[in-house]
Specification:
987 residues, four-stranded parallel beta sheet, single chain, 34% helix
C-alpha cells in the first residue's frame, strides 16, 4: 500500500478516485508547522536556527498520517507545485522522520499542474526528491518575515500608539497607497483649453477636428492655458477657410493578450467581475480542486499561483481546434502563439492559468458550479482561447486640415479607427483601469485639397486631474511591476491592510486611513531602507536566486540582519519629540492643508501665538496646541481636511465638537471609542450616547444627524393590530425596528433616521410572520402560511425557523435560499425545493459553499448574529477574530468544525453535556496556560474601565424590551470555565 499526502481534503478525495486500489490519500490541511509567535523562534545568534511548532489540530492529523505510513510500502508527497507546496512536503517529511516511522521506506515527491486523471498518472511515473533549493527559499522568506514583523511591530507599539503591525511586504504595499495619497493632496490643478471644430465634407458628412498647431508651431494639450488665448483661436477659426491638407490611412494590428498569470487574473476579475483578489483566489482554488462534471470529479483549471504565461503543447492544439470549430478557420493563426514573461523577478516557471480541458465550454459547466465560480471559469476560458486567436486588423486614419484665417495658418487634426477584421476581439477585450479608451470613431471619406464647411467652433475649459487612487487591481499591478511580493502573497497582503484598518475601500478605490499614514510616515523616517521599493524587490530577487541554487540562504539572512538589527538598536533611545517632528514634516500637507486665504495652516484658532502640531496620546495621534496646558485646543487628525477642519476646545484628543443642541443647550460631540465613532450629548456622569450606523461616515456627520441619533429610539408608527408603538433605534447589532418583543433589523442601505412608518410596519409584520430569514427570531410563536395543496395531498406551508424561513410538507422540510424573498414564494417554487430535498439533494445551501467535508456533507460559511460562522450538518463554529468570511479556506473551516465537535459543540446531545464533563477536563489544562488565560481575562476586564466608548446598547428615552434569547443558548458556560481555571491553578 502506498500513502499519498496532499494539502486539501477535496484534492485528496479526487486523487483517491484516480489512483484507485493500492493507494491511500491523506490531507495535511495546509501547513502542519509554523514559527511560534514568541521571542526566539528565529535565533540570529544561533545562525538563524528556527524553532517549529505543531499545533494540536495538525498533531492529530499527523498522527493519523504517521500511523498509515508505518504500514505503507512507499510515501508519495503530492503537494502543490510551488515553494509553499514544497515547504509543506518538507514539513510533513521532517515530522515523519521525527516519529521514526519512515525507516527504509521510499519517499517520492510528485508534482502536477492540474488535478486530472492523465496529469496525476503522468506525475506518478516521474517522481523526484524534495527540491532543497525551493525549501531554502521558503525558509529564508519565512525567517525574513518573522524577523521584520516580530521585531518591528513592538517598536511601533512603543513609539506609535494605535499602530498594530508592520510587515516586510505589507508595509511597502501600504506605502504605495500612502504615497499616492500624498501626490493627490499636493497636486495643483492646471488650467488648459481645447479647441474643437465641427466640420462637414463636401458630401455633407459631419466630423470633428482638434486644433494641434498655429503659425508653424505645434500645440500640445496644455499649451492653451487661458481663456483669452482660447477665445483668440476660436475667433480666428470662426472666420477661417478649411481644406484637407493630407489624408493618411495606415493598417495596424492588435495582438491578443497572454493567458492569465495570478496577478493578471486578479486584476481582470476585479475589473470585470468586481471580485477582490482574496475572493478570486478562493474561487480559483475550488476550480483547481475540481467539481462534479458528468458524474466525475475533475479539476477545471490548472494551478492558479503562477507567473508563467506559457501553455502546454496539447493545450495550444486543443485551443486551435476549439477556435476553428466555434469561430471558423479565419480566426486560427497560421502558427501557434508563444508568450514570454514580462514581470520583474518572475517566480519559477509554471504553465499559465487555463482550463484543464478547453473543449469544456463555459455553458457546459455552469450547472455544476456556483454563479461566481462559473463567472471566473468563463473569464479564464475566454482569455485562454483568445490568446491563441488571430490578431485584429485595424485601419487608423489621420486627416490633417489647414485653416486659413487671414495671415494666420492654423492646423487641425481628425483621427479615426476602423476594425477591418475583429480577430480575437470577437471574443475578448481586456478591461481598463484608468486609461482613456482609444478614439475608435470612423471618419467619412475625404480627399486631399477638399474644401470643408464649418458648423461651429467649441472652446472648452479643462483642468488637469491628480493621479487616480489605486484599486485593488492596479495596486497588484504596481506591486508586480516593482517586483514586490509574489503571486501567492498579493491577496493576503491586501486583506491584512484592510483588517488592520490601515486602508479602506470606497467605490473600489483604496484610501489610506490616518492610522496607516502614521505607520508609513514612521517607517519612512526611521526604517527608510526597509520600506524602500528597490530594497524589497532586491530581496525578492535574492529569494529567487536561492530557489535557483545560486546563493546561500543563510548568507542572505546574515547580510539582512546585520543592518536591520542596527536600525532596531537605533530606535531604543528614540524620543517622542523626534518621532513627532518627523511625522509633522512628512504628514504636514495632510494634517495641515493650505488655507484658501493664505494664512498659516498651523496657527492655533484658540490662542494668539500657539502652533498646531501632531501629538501622541493614549488612544493614538491627535492635533494639539504648542501652548498646552495654557491652551487646551485639540482636534482629531482627520479634522484638518476641508469642512471637517472645525476646532475642538479642551484637553480631549479624539473629540470633535459638532455644535450645541438647541433644546438642551448641551454640547454635541463626535468621539473615537474603542468600538468605533459615536456621538455624545453633554458631559454628565451618564451622558446620552449613540453609535454611528454604517450608512453615516464620521467625516460627513452633521449636527442635525447627531441630534437625530441621540433622540433614538423614536416612535415611527402604531402597529395596525395592537395599536402599540413601533420604534426605530440602534442596538448592539445595528439599526432595528421594534414592536413589543419583536425586533427586526433594517436593510444595510436604509437610513434609521429617515425610515418611515409603512416600511417599519412591513418589517415587523414580516418578522412576526417568521418570513424575514433572520436567525434567532421568535419562531415558536410565528404562524405558518399555507401556500397551497401538495399534489400528493396535504398542505404546503412556509414557516419561520431558527436558521431562516423554510417550506414544509409532512415530514419534509426545505430551507429557502439566503437571498430568496419568502413573502413572494409561490407554491411551484416550494414544490421544487421539497422535491430536491426529498430526492436527497438536500435542498438549497445556505451561506457560501466552501466545499465537501471529508466525511461527507457540505461546509458553508454564513453570517450570524454574533459574527460569521462555518456550518457542517448540526455543527456551527464561529470564525476566529483574525479570520475573514471572505478569505477563509475549506481546510481552515474543517479545522474549526473538528475543534467544535471535539469540544462537544456538535450535535445537540453534545451541546447539552452536563457541567460535570467540563469540570472533569480541567486537570488536563496546563497550569501556565490557565494562568495566562486568567491574566488575559484580568487585563481585558481592567481595560474596560479605561475606555469611555459607548456600550452600543439601545439607549435614550424609550427603552426597548429585552430580545428573546435564541433557542439552545447555554448561559451556565462561564461557570465550568472558572472551575477549570481554579483546578488548573491548584495543579
Amino acid at each position: 500500500m502506498n500513502v499519498v499526502i496532499v494539502e486539501s481534503p477535496a484534492k485528496a478525495k479526487t486523487i483517491n478516485k484516480y489512483l484507485g486500489k493500492g493507494y491511500e490519500v491523506y490531507a495535511s490541511f495546509g501547513h502542519v508547522r509554523d514559527l511560534p509567535a514568541k521571542d526566539g523562534s528565529v535565533d540570529p545568534d544561533a545562525d538563524f536556527a528556527m524553532l517549529w511548532d505543531v499545533d494540536v489540530k495538525s498533531a492529530k492529523r499527523l498522527s493519523e498520517i504517521a500511523k498509515a505510513v508505518k504500514d505503507a510500502d512507499k510515501v508519495i508527497l503530492a503537494t502543490d507545485p510551488d515553494r509553499e507546496g514544497e515547504a509543506i512536503s518538507w514539513h510533513v517529511l521532517e515530522v515523519l522522520k521525527a516519529k521514526r516511522v519512515l525507516k527504509d521506506k521510499r519517499v517520492e515527491r510528485v508534482v502536477f499542474n492540474a488535478i486530472t486523471k492523465s496529469a496525476i498518472l503522468e506525475a506518478m511515473q516521474h517522481p523526484r526528491e524534495i527540491d532543497v533549493a525551493l525549501v531554502d527559499a521558503y525558509l529564508a522568506r519565512r525567517a525574513l518575515d518573522y524577523l521584520v514583523g516580530f521585531n518591528l511591530s513592538p517598536v511601533l507599539w512603543r513609539k506609535l500608539p494605535g499602530a498594530r503591525s508592520a510587515g516586510r511586504v505589507q508595509s511597502v504595499a501600504l506605502r504605495l497607497v500612502c504615497d499616492r495619497e500624498l501626490e493627490i493632496e499636493s497636486f495643483v490643478a492646471r488650467e488648459y483649453w481645447s479647441i474643437v471644430a465641427h466640420l462637414k465634407t463636401q458630401a455633407g458628412a459631419p466630423f470633428t477636428a482638434r486644433l494641434v498647431g498655429a503659425d508653424g508651431k505645434k500645440l500640445t494639450r496644455l499649451d492653451i492655458g487661458a481663456g483669452p488665448e482660447a477665445e483668440a483661436f476660436k475667433a480666428a477659426l470662426e472666420n477661417a477657410a478649411f481644406k484637407v491638407a493630407e489624408v493618411e490611412a495606415k493598417p495596424a494590428k492588435r495582438h491578443p493578450y497572454a493567458p492569465f498569470t495570478t496577478s493578471t487574473l486578479q486584476q481582470e476579475a476585479s475589473r470585470k467581475l468586481g471580485f477582490a483578489p482574496a475572493r478570486t483566489m478562493q474561487l480559483a482554488q475550488r476550480l483547481y480542486e475540481g467539481a462534479d462534471i458528468d458524474g466525475e470529479t475533475v479539476g477545471l483549471i490548472t494551478y492558479m499561483r503562477t507567473d508563467g504565461v506559457d501553455l502546454a503543447p496539447e493545450a495550444i492544439t486543443s485551443a486551435r481546434s476549439v477556435i476553428a470549430r466555434e469561430f471558423g478557420d479565419a480566426y486560427v493563426p497560421k502558427a501557434p502563439r508563444k508568450y514570454t514573461v514580462k514581470a520583474k523577478n518572475a517566480q519559477e516557471a509554471h504553465e499559465a492559468i487555463r482550463p484543464t480541458d478547453l473543449t469544456r465550454l463555459p455553458k457546459r459547466v455552469m450547472r455544476a458550479l456556483e454563479p461566481d465560480q462559473a463567472k471566473l471559469y468563463e473569464l479564464i476560458w475566454t482569455r485562454t482561447i483568445a490568446s491563441q486567436m488571430e490578431s485584429a486588423e485595424l485601419e487608423r486614419t489621420t486627416v490633417d486640415i489647414l485653416a486659413q484665417a487671414g495671415e494666420r495658418k492654423l492646423d487641425l487634426r481628425a483621427t479615426g479607427q476602423v476594425i477591418r477584421f475583429d480577430g480575437f476581439l470577437k471574443l475578448y477585450q481586456e478591461g481598463r483601469d484608468d486609461e482613456e479608451d482609444e478614439d475608435s470613431s470612423r471618419l467619412p471619406d475625404m480627399a486631399r485639397d477638399e474644401r470643408l464647411t464649418k458648423e461651429r467652433i467649441d472652446a472648452t475649459q479643462h483642468f488637469t486631474e491628480p493621479p487616480p487612487r489605486f484599486t485593488e487591481a492596479t495596486l497588484v499591478k504596481r506591486m508586480e511591476e516593482l517586483g514586490i511580493g509574489r503571486p501567492s502573497t498579493y491577496a493576503s497582503t491586501l486583506a491584512v491592510l484592510r483588517e488592520r484598518d490601515y486602508v479602506r475601500i470606497e467605490k473600489k478605490r483604496l484610501y489610506p486611513e490616518d492610522k496607516g499614514r502614521l505607520v508609513t510616515a514612521f517607517l519612512e523616517s526611521f526604517f527608510t531602507r526597509y520600506v524602500g521599493y528597490d530594497f524589497t524587490a532586491d530581496l525578492e530577487e535574492k529569494l529567487d536566486r536561492i530557489s535557483n541554487h545560486e546563493i546561500d540562504w543563510k548568507q542572505v539572512l546574515r547580510d539582512f540582519w546585520l543592518d536591520f538589527s542596527g536600525a532596531l538598536a537605533g530606535t531604543k533611545d528614540l524620543r517622542t519629540t523626534q518621532v513627532l517632528d518627523s511625522l509633522n514634516e512628512i504628514l504636514g500637507p495632510h494634517i495641515f492643508p493650505a488655507k484658501a486665504d493664505g494664512s498659516n495652516p498651523r496657527a492655533c484658532p484658540s490662542c494668539a501665538d500657539g502652533q498646531l502640531s501632531l501629538k501622541l496620546g493614549k488612544f493614538g495621534a491627535f492635533v494639539g496646541c504648542s501652548n498646552y496646558p495654557e491652551c487646551k485646543f485639540t482636534r482629531t487628525l482627520a479634522g484638518g481636511n476641508g469642512e471637517n477642519a472645525e476646532a475642538v476646545e479642551g484637553d480631549r484628543p479624539g473629540v470633535k465638537v459638532l455644535g450645541i443642541d438647541p433644546e438642551t443647550g448641551e454640547e454635541v460631540t463626535l468621539r473615537d471609542g474603542r468600538f468605533g465613532a459615536y456621538v455624545q450629548q453633554g458631559e454628565a456622569e451618564k451622558p446620552k450616547r449613540s453609535s454611528l450606523p454604517k450608512t453615516i461616515s464620521p467625516g460627513d456627520l452633521t449636527l442635525e444627524q447627531a441630534i437625530g441619533l441621540l433622540s433614538l429610539p423614536r416612535e415611527v408608527a402604531k402597529h395596525p393590530e395592537t395599536k402599540e408603538p413601533v420604534v426605530a433605534g440602534i442596538g448592539r447589532y445595528g439599526p432595528y425596528v421594534q414592536h413589543g418583543k419583536t425586533y427586526a433589523n433594517i436593510g444595510k442601505d436604509e437610513d434609521i433616521l429617515s425610515i418611515g412608518g409603512n416600511r417599519a410596519i412591513d418589517l415587523i409584520i414580516a418578522k412576526e410572520s417568521g418570513l424575514t430569514g433572520r436567525r434567532f427570531g421568535a419562531s415558536e410563536s410565528a404562524p405558518a402560511r399555507v401556500l397551497g395543496e401538495h399534489p400528493s395531498g396535504g398542505p404546503v406551508t412556509i414557516k419561520a425557523g431558527r436558521y431562516g424561513p423554510y417550506v414544509s410538507h409532512g415530514k419534509v422540510n426545505a430551507t429557502l435560499l439566503k437571498d430568496a424573498d419568502p413573502t413572494t414564494l409561490t407554491l411551484e417554487g416550494a414544490l421544487e425545493l421539497l422535491s430536491a430535498k426529498a430526492s436527497g439533494g438536500g435542498g438549497p445551501i445556505q451561506g457560501r459553499l466552501l466545499g465537501e467535508h471529508p466525511s461527507g456533507g457540505p461546509i458553508t460559511v454564513r453570517a450570524g448574529r454574533f459574527g460569521a460562522y462555518v456550518n457542517h450538518g448540526k455543527t456551527n463554529a464561529t470564525l476566529k477574530a483574525n479570520a475573514s468570511a471572505e478569505t477563509i479556506t475549506l481546510e481552515e473551516a474543517i479545522r474549526l468544525i473538528e475543534d467544535k465537535e471535539a469540544a462537544g459543540g456538535g450535535a445537540k446531545k453534545k451541546a447539552a453535556a452536563p457541567k460535570k464533563t467540563a469540570a472533569k477536563a480541567a486537570p488536563k489544562t496546563n497550569g501556565a496556560k490557565a494562568g495566562a488565560s486568567k491574566a488575559a481575562a484580568s487585563k481585558a476586564k481592567a481595560s474596560e474601565g479605561d475606555d469611555d466608548g459607548p456600550p452600543f446598547e439601545p439607549t435614550a428615552n424609550l427603552k426597548p424590551a429585552p430580545a428573546r434569547k435564541p433557542a439552545g443558548s447555554q448561559k451556565p458556560a462561564p461557570k465550568p470555565a472558572a472551575d477549570k481555571q481554579k483546578k488548573a491553578k491548584h495543579a
